Every structure is written in structure tokens, then in C-alpha cells.
Amino acid sequence: MLDRALLAALLLLAACPLWSLPALTGEDPPANAMWVDSLDLGQMAQSWGQPHAGQSVEGNPICLAGTTYRHGLGTHADSRFVIHLGGTATRFAAVVGLDDEKKGEGSVIFELWADDRRIYRSPVMRGGAPPAQVSADLSGAQELTLLVDSAGDGISCDHADWAGAVLYLKPGASRRPVAATVPVEAPPVIASGHSPIPAIHGPRVVGATPGRPFLFLVPATGEGPLTYSATNLPAGLSLDPKTGIISGRLKYAGTRVATLRVTGPRGSGSRSLTIVGGRHKLALTPPMGWNSWNVWAGAVDAEKVREAADYLVSSGLAAHGYQYLNIDDTWEGMRGTDGEITSNAKFPDMKALADYVHAKGLKLGIYSSPGPKTCAGFTGSFGHEEQDARTWAGWGIDYLKYDWCSCQSDDPREPYRIMGRALEGCGRDIVYSLCQYGNAEVWKWGPAVNGNLWRTTGDINDSWGSMSTIGFGQAGHERYAGPGHWNDPDMMVVGNLGWGVNPRPTRLTPHEQLTHVTLWSLLAAPLLLGCDLATLDKWTLDLLTNDEVIAVNQDPLGRQAGRRWAQAGLEVWSRPLWDGTTAVGLFNRNFRAARVTARWCDLGLKGRLPVRDLWQQRDLGEFADSFAARIPAHGAMLLKIGRPRQG
How many C-alpha atoms does 432 have within 13 Å on its Cβ side? Predict the structure, then answer.
């Protein structure tokens, strides 16, 4: 008698001749079947490149383990393709794996969903590993979804193939499957970032070195004209009542709590600001501002930076705490005969540019490399660290992004230590950003080389796969973050981006953008925009200027959130806040809406507690033991749970 498992396998083979590779490698589809690549692939969403019919994502013949397929879908993680079946299909078949063109690189997971049921999930498939044969029953299914997941380690080299993908149809079916049109998603409802009542926002604590230039723009909103006042400012500092700019030089080390007030036609608002004087007191909250790379890349010039400064103010972003303007690569010129670095023709007068930015109460950042060349092939700082630091200080630079690129050091710490010492002795406070992509566990030694923030990952792009993998991949790093020392998961990818070409809207959906800002705020990550500030629409401005959300990011306690619970693509993260409450994020990483529950036992909470929705800025009531909500696909909810301490 045949073994039951063997009998089931034989019946499967009889029902669908999948394992006969010629049936999936030929020019014509199997009997009573259709190639999936005959559908409209323009409806397929993926994180990089474009899907191709019968070709890999790079446009080569689809090839898995040396076998070439004339038909199939060449895609890239993360990807999603929805097919309306209408009950006409009986089975799906394909061979799945990483295309041979990546020569052993990449890692992905393939999934099939029939309506709301997952009917297939591959193990993690890596480049060079044998492909998998897939056969899935579609009897009665109205919709089929093909998913490729990045396997949680980024999307690099994830060239995924649904090779020989076919749909077997009911005999005599009058209708054929069609690609589903990607629905236009309505943006989530969020509170407006504008109120006519004067209020002060941004960080509650700032630090500086005594004797060095101090600059801080009081972030305040409200119907103007506004006037500013302050009491108990430290010796050496003064406030301009018309501009709200605090400037001067701290005379003494120590901590002073000043009271700031802003007044306008609709009333006044006040808040305390703790000013800390001493060595290594910079970036006591994560830096907020703008970086040129994700929109202008090598096309950046001084005029674009001036325009960005203007828009940072006119858009109201500066009034909510965004105050750094950071020039990325391609500003560098040659060195003079004395070895001093110069700026190129795009930046004819760097000091004049810094003066322009400072006059608005904003701060200017710059970029270099510990190697002889930057990533774009311009002059790096190798061998000229102290000289460059003094030059930047003379120009009035406030922030340095130091990018690994051509550095050849065997010890990744040493080049950053050299520049850290140079900045410490340059005579000006310069926030120090280490950009070496998380190599050698930089979060463990970044503070020892005077780093204020450090990249924990490779470059981000505006795809769900890139943003979510990077953001959710920060779990475990929270123990290394705190005031003056921040994990940096890279710049934000909302608004219009371009990387040097005509800016176009981010590829993140509105719910994905809300997840992005929610997660970065919980992570105490630097909030550095990378978009064209001149083209921000109202919804995006509201997304970026919600002061209750920003307050989570800028919380003076400086505790980065950690993952408290996760199951099947649903996650709950939290961080304690300075006022005794807890910020909690509910996340749905799946492609369908789901209910997510935050349980007090996972959050270290107890009792009946008030819950506030920070994105909508409304109280939801009091809840005992847990709170649950329906979270949209790739969406998030940001809560504040608990009663604030008095005083």
C-alpha cells in the first residue's frame, strides 16, 4: 500500500504538471493555462526598478540555477502584484528564487495570498541557493496576491523571479484574470500643524561650550506679529525680542533654566528652556533640519541652500524646531598651496552663506570624508583634519557629516577619533555626525570619538522595503542612544525627492509616510528632511509639524523606543517620556488592515490610564490593561499613555 504522503504527492503531480520544467520554461503556456506575465505589470508595486515580463529586473533573461525561463515576472523586493481572478482560476504554479544575475547575493521571502488567506510562504531564499517549486490551489479564490518580502535585512540585490508563473483556468472559462488597479489611497486624517494661539515648540534643553558662539532660534508659532522675551538667561546670552534669536557666548559652565515667552495678537505662550554649558554638551536632543542630498545630490549650490533657508522659515518648519541646513557632497574645491580646502564655483563664498543662514537663527552643516576623496570623488579631509576643522569653524559651520567612502583605515574608529579631536579644538561648536553605515557596531564606540550621532545602516530610499527594514531594524540599538549621542537611521524620505534630477513625489504612500515619521520620532532619530522645501503640500507640512509628535522625538529624557511586542507583521514599540507618560506606537507591516493591541503588561504599565492619539491630537478615553485599534496596511498609530506628572 502506498504511503499516504507519497499518494498525496502523486495526486498533486497529476492535478498540475508543475514539476515538468519544460511546461514552465517553454514559449507556450501549459494546456488550459495563461502566463502571468501577459497581465498588466504596470499595476505591480516594488521598491526598486520596474517589473519585467520574461526578464529579470535588470532586463536579462530570467535565469534560476542555470535554467532559463522565457516567461515569468522579474521583480525586486519588496513587491506586490494583485490579480483579480473572479473564481476563474484553479491553480497557480511557478519556480521562485533569486535571479542568477546577482551571483549569490540577496535574500527574500515569497508569499501567495488567496483573498485573505496566505496559501504559500517560502523560507528565506538566498542568492545562489536552489529555487523552489510552487503549486497553490486557487479554487473559489476571487483575488490572488504575489508578494516578495526583503526578509528583514534590506533590499540590496533582492532580484526576485516568479519564473514560469502560470494560472491554470477552469475549462471553458468565459472570463480571464486581470491585474488589479492599484487603489488611490486617501491620506490618514491628522491634526493641522497651524494654530493662531502663540506657543513655543522644539527642544526643551540645549547645550553649548562656554566661550564659543551660541545660536538658538526660539521655535514659536501663532498669529503675528510675535514678540519674544526671556527671564533667567545664562550670563553671556541675549534674546532679540523681534526675531526670537538667542545669541552670544556662555560665560560659565553649568545648567540654567530660562523661561521663554512669545506674545501675539491672539495671546501668549511660555515654556522653560534648560541651557547646559560645558564640554561635549551638543545635540542634547536629536538634530532637526534639512539635508541637500535626497533632492539635489550633485546639483546643490549656494542659491539652493539660501532658498532652503528661506523656505524653512516661510513654511513654518523652523518655527516647529527644524533649524539645521546641511550641505551634502559636491561643495568641495581643490586645496591651496598651503593645504587649505576651498569651496568650488557652486559655493563661491561659504562664510557669506553661513552668515545668511545664521541671520535667520538657523545653522549650517557641511560634508566631508576621512578618506582622500568623498563619495562623489571630491576632496576629502584625509591628512588635513585639523586644518579643515579650523577652516569650517572660520566659515561658521555648525554641523559635520563625515562619510566613510574612500577611507582605507584598518580600524574604523581611528579616522573618526582624529576628526573628533580636531573638532573639539577648532574653537567652535560643531555637531559631529559619523556616517559609516553601522560598520563595526559604531553605536558602541561613537561617543568615545566625540560623535553626536552615527548612521546605523546603509542609505535609505523612498520605498516601503527600504524605510521599514531600516526603521524596524533599529530594535536593540536603544541601549546606546541618549542625550548627545543618537542612532541615525538616515534622512527622511517624504515630500518631493530627486537625487539630482527633477523632484517627484515620494513613492511612500500616505500611511507609509505616517509610519515613517512615527517610527523616527519614537526612535529619537535625527529628523533631517531630504525634500524640495518649496513644494511641500499642506498634508505633508501637517505631517512634519505636529508638535505633539515632534515632542516625542525631542523628549529631553532621550530614551529611544524599543520593540515591546511583535507577531505576524504587527508590532508595538514604546519609550518613556520626561513627564512620566509613555509614547507607544502601533504598527501594521502587512498589506492588509489589522487590529493591533498594546497590552500594559508588555509596556510596564498598570491600572486604568488615559490614552491620547497624538496624530489627531485628541483624547481617546481611559483604558484598563490594554488598548486596541484597527491599523491600516503599512500604517501606524502614535499614542501617549498615562497621566503627566505635575510641575
Answer: 26
List 403, 488, 532, 542, catalytic entry: 403
Among the listed residues 310, 459, 579, 602, the single catalytic one is 459
The beta-strand segments (E) located in 278-418 are 288-291, 324-326, 332-335, 341-343, 363-368, 399-403
**C-alpha cell, 123:** 523560507
Residue 342 has pLDDT above 50, yes or no: yes
Looking at the domain assignment, is residue 646 inside a domain? no
pLDDT computed for residue 20 by the predictor: 59
Interacting residues of 475 by C-beta distance below 8 A, sequence separation 6+: 562, 563
**Share of the chain residues as helix, strand and coil, in percent rounded to the nearest 5:** 20, 35, 45
Q: Say how far apart CA 215 and CA 220 lie, in whole Å.
A: 16
CATH value at residue 130: 2.60.120.1060
Compute the mean pLDDT over every residue in the chain, rounded to the nearest whole number.
94
| Cross-sheet strand order for the sheet of 254-264 | 205-208, 267-277, 254-264, 227-231
The 3-state DSSP class for residue 438 equals coil
Confidence of residue 9 (pLDDT cuts 50, 70, 90): very low
Is the pLDDT confidence value at 22 over 90?
no
Strands 45-46 and 159-169: unpaired
| 162 three-class SS | strand
Tell me what pLDDT residue 447 has.
Answer: 97
Let me know if 459 is a catalytic residue.
Answer: yes
Average pLDDT over residues 400-420: 96
- What pLDDT is stored for residue 510 in this prediction? 96
Confidence of residue 47 (pLDDT cuts 50, 70, 90): confident
Say yes or no: 326 and 235 in one domain: no
Residues 295 and 271 in one domain: no
- C-alpha gyration radius of the chain: 27
329 catalytic residue (yes or no): no
pTM, entire model: 0.90
Q: Which amino acid is at 158?
A: D
| Helix locations, 16-131, DSSP H | 21-25
